[in-house]
Structure formats: structure tokens, C-alpha cells
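re: ur question from yesterday

yeah so i grabbed the chain u mentioned. its 259 aa long if i counted rite. heres the sequnce exactly as i have it in my notes:
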Amino acid sequence: MDKKTTSRDGTRLAYQRTGQGPAVILISGAMSTGGTVAPLAGPLSDRFTVVSYDRRGRGESGDTAPYAVAREVEDLAALIDVVGGEAALYGISSGGALALHAAASGLAVRRVAVYEVPFAVYEGGVKERAEYTEHLTEALAQGRRGDAVELFLRLTGLAEEMIQGARQSPMWAGMEAIAPSLAYDDAVMGDGRVPRERLASIAVPVLAMAGDASPAWMREAAQAVAEAAPEGTYRVLEDQTHMVDPNVLAPVLAEFFAQ
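ran it thru and got these C-alpha cells back, copy pasting raw so excuse formatting
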């Protein structure tokens, strides 16, 4: 990240800006930084001004307590100001929930695209998320960052042997470093249910996507988002999982954002 701007509460935000044209801001999900979504910038930058950024509490961005989802919406407002006062948003996973929240908050957002926001479509999923919130809050309060990361990886469905293998990997220290931000993504997701009332207030087009190689509930969640938004569209990407290929996703985003 080679540029910085300042959010309303004084938090410094690190970002990168490439390309020319209408602005698109890329929003990463949990346990990730702007670098995670940056590969999308290349294929989009010939038609758009593309901004990827480190969300507060991770990467090169700062942080200011206490956290509130409204502060992350203000972060997006600051980035929208940087690119001229209007932007389209793309968010993956819980970053998609933040994008939808921002659009519903009345920011100058012209279109929103989200990929596999992990909203719970069954009561079992709602219960699982409530238990995750409880245990995550406890682990972070006690400074058990490694346990917090484990909880998140378990929530994503990663097998126990893979979680234990990750603990021994060189990446683990970096994961522990941004573990406190897991609470931020948890707050963005709310109780885990599709926020139908909030989505109904979004006055701009919304594209909700999922991969056909992902679990069925991911596609059901994306479809529910599209149905709840007044101008919602649902699309399934062939042969894609939660780790969506930027070269498959970028043309779909370009088509949607160019409308």
C-alpha cells in the first residue's frame, strides 16, 4: 500500500489506486488485507479506477478504539472522497456484508457487487454463529489470539488436521497479528441472518454471486441477498469456490460496473 488517507475518527487507512475511469473500491473479508483482493485490480484497471485498501486493524492501516461497524462505513466514505465522491463497491465474504452495509447507509455508492457473503440461511447456521461470537469474544478478551484464529478456521469448515498444520506454518504469526479484527468481521455479519430490512433500503443495483463448486448454502445466501435488494441480481460462477479466480470474476464485475 503506497497511499494513505484519514478516516473521520483519525484512523489512517493505507490503500493502492490503479487505472482510470469510474471508481471501484475492493473490500476484503476476514483474516485478509487489501493485498488479498488486489489481484482484481489488474484486469479491472483498464476500464476503472480501482482502489484496494487495508481495512482498519490490519496490514498498514491503523486502528482506533472502540470499534463500531459505523467506523468502517466512515472508512469507505473517506476512500470515496479520495476517488472523487462516488464509487462502486465490491466485497468478498464478510467484506461483502460491509459493502451492503455501506450502500444501505446512504454513501455515494452507485453499484454493489458481493461474492459469497456467508449469511446463515438455516437456524443451525444462526446457532453456530452465535456460539462462534461467544467463544471468539472470550478468546480475544483473554489474549488467546491463536485460539481465536482456530475458531475462525473451524467456522469456515477447515479440517482439524489442516488447522493444526496451519499453526506450524510461517503464515501463523501474521494470522495471529490480525486476529483482533475477527471481532470486526463478526460485528459486520450481525447475528448471521440475511439482513432483509437493510437490504430492502438499498436504492442502487446489487449483484450477489456465488460459485457452483461452493456449498449449496452459499448459493442460497447469495440468492437471498439478490431477492431482498430492490434491484438485486443473482449470478452463479461456473467451477468457482470461495477462493474465486480473479480472472473469472473480473469480467463479470466489469460488465456489471460498466452499466
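noticed a couple things. The mean pLDDT is 96. also Residues 123-186 form one domain.
anyway ttyl
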